Amino acid sequence: MISIIDYDAGNIKSVEKAIKYLGSDVLITRDADTILSSNGIILPGVGAFGDAMNRLSEYGLTAVIKEAVARDIPFLGICLGLQLLFDESEESPGVKGLSLLKGKIKRIPDNENLKIPHIGWNDLKLSGNGRLFDGIPENPYVYFVHSYYLEAEDESIVKASAEYGVKIHASVEKGKLFACQFHPEKSSDVGLRILSNFINLTKDGEE
Amino acid sequence: MHTKRIIPCLDIKNGRVVKGIKFVDLKDAGEPSETAAAYDRAGADEVVFLDITASADNRNTQLEWVRNVASKLFIPFTVGGGIKSVDDFRAILREGADKIAINSAAIMNPELISEAADKFGSQCVVVAIDAKRRENGSGWTIYKNGGRVDMEMDAVEWAVTAQRLGAGEILLTSMDADGTKAGYDLELTKAVSGSVGIPVIASGGAGELSHFYDAINYAGAEAVLAASLFHYKELEISKVKEYLRDRNISVRI
Fold it and tell me: Angle at which helices B59-72 and B86-94 pack, to 10 degrees?
């Protein structure tokens, strides 16, 4: 069973529906025991970094997430759910992130030819060894909606990147901790393949 | 590369797709989720649904088809029609829609744009504008109630206002071009897209491949929308994309 962490973030249903469509059991929950006993965890998110961290703290979920990652439960952050895994964001100065990975969340710089937020389909440059991207051909298109982007400190965790005036670190992987800046649940066949790769990773070790 | 988008539009009446669609493999072309999923397979980048019968009385019908669409469609989709309040926004977004298009409601209550943008983010607020050239030929005015009432407000000014209030996108339909298949209203599209910083979706008038190219390349549209052309398979989305790609416009193929 996969838990989707419920902290009142928008658009949580789309992730749930995609996971269901792929045939996996899924539950939207903020119950610590349920989350920690699941095979995989998804942290979705749309909205502001500061608000999201406040709500995670309010619901006691920051400790649960850290515990889950420490226990090596496969974990997938999506969009803001990627950004929250890092130390801090220019969107909400002074607010501490989950600090599970090292890097900065920065504002996409203004550029005459590019609109902010970055909304729409963009292609990914794959590092070639990202497990979420198993079976996905080079330069796949995925759907983005964001104004802030990741610049990871350790580039070896970056498994996909995109160009939008700057180089966006679009997907990371460290151990069983995965994250995507884009929305796999809105990225058609490519996105479904990414989610199904994640689901398969949650089945490792099962009978 | 960031890509330009090709968007089919489906009219929904009482929870059913109105126009027939010539996808042979569909069990029920009237079912919004089936039809939309077929468009996903055909290469659509997004789908827009305009619910032409939506009202407070049949809100549940609307929520039901939106819910069904969201369980089968894994590309972004927009829902328009009868949405008048922040609560309507919330209810439809909660079912899995990505964006909401508002037209008359935004004209009558511009604050709805800013309230919705504050609550849910600009990215999900699409202001739909129906515009028609003034009789004296100078510029365009906007119409409400499905093109029935001339508001005598300038279309470009209204688009700028909508952006200032927090709209994330303008869905711009030319009432003059709509249904003619003679091409998008390029001057209207250019006037609006040149005045706002948010994406403009050109709508109304697409009839052949070059029309899509002109709307993007000449008029500055970020996305191009068509309804009957795709419904009746007069043009395939993949053909449009190949045509654009061959002319150096970045598209998702």
Answer: 40
